[in-house]
Hints:
alpha/beta
Amino acid sequence: MQFTVARHDTYTEVTGEGRLNMVAAPKLKDVIASEIGAGSRQIVVELGKTEFMDSSGLGALISCLKLARQASGDLRIANVPPQVLMVLQLTSMDRVLTPYPDAASAFGEG
């Protein structure tokens, strides 16, 4: 899975492309931890190009959420495809990681 980072005025957008599974999960954690270390406090994970997510990917998102909150920030998800949304709903994690239509609206800029 490939990750790209775009810094905006009030948030940082991390876009993942590919499969968010046990191979990609540590990469996502590393990218988010690096951004938090660089001072980003509001992070949006843009999932529009994420083809698949398993429990490892879900665990990585939750770990990243904890990292952001421990740094007095927040992590939100946006543009969630149907398969990823199904995983979130089956685990009731859509209540913790509320999906937003796009990155800008996740922090009220849309």
